[in-house]
Amino acid sequence: xxxxxxxxxxxxxxxxxxxxxxxxxxxxxxxxxxxxxxxxxxxxxxxxxxxxxxxxxxxxxxxxxxxxxxxxxxxxxxxxxxxxxxxxxxxxxxxxxxxxxxxxxxxxxxxxxxxxxxxxxxxxxxxxxxxxxxxxxxxxxxxxxxxxxxxxxxxxxxxxxxxxxxxxxxx
Length: 171
Hints:
By secondary structure, the chain is mostly helical. The protein folds into 2 domains: 3-83, Rna Polymerase Sigma Factor, Chain: A (Orthogonal Bundle), CATH 1.10.1740; 95-168, Winged helix-like DNA-binding domain superfamily/Winged helix DNA-binding domain (Arc Repressor Mutant, subunit A), CATH 1.10.10.10. Helix content is 77%, strand content 0%. The protein is elongated, with a radius of gyration of 30 Å. This is SigE family RNA polymerase sigma factor.
């Protein structure tokens, strides 16, 4: 089967097979996907398909098997999810983290990147330089300026909204 013959076969059989697989799966998108995948596999063996008396039956069989395989995988996943305990809820970020993120957003991108990579990702100055493509001296300057700006931003936030009340207790 040459390319033109295969194209004609595809054009004639695809709508019919998609309709059949839609009836089988109940999902048009799924039917189109498995029929398309079956045709991709048929393309690789198109020379043997013409020798076969029923190339459309071969494509239909492959598409049906793909649909069943997908259904089984989905069923196994659903069973796994049903037997797994639901994840515990994670509390949202605390006020300190929120203040830090807000302060980081006020920094220029290059300083913010350097501070995050160095202090939050635990990369060395040399690793930050390698990752950002900046010289080591530039990274050091960005870190210094970024830390100073963060200190100013966080000090202003603390002055406006004190986190500590008298007696050392959080308010």
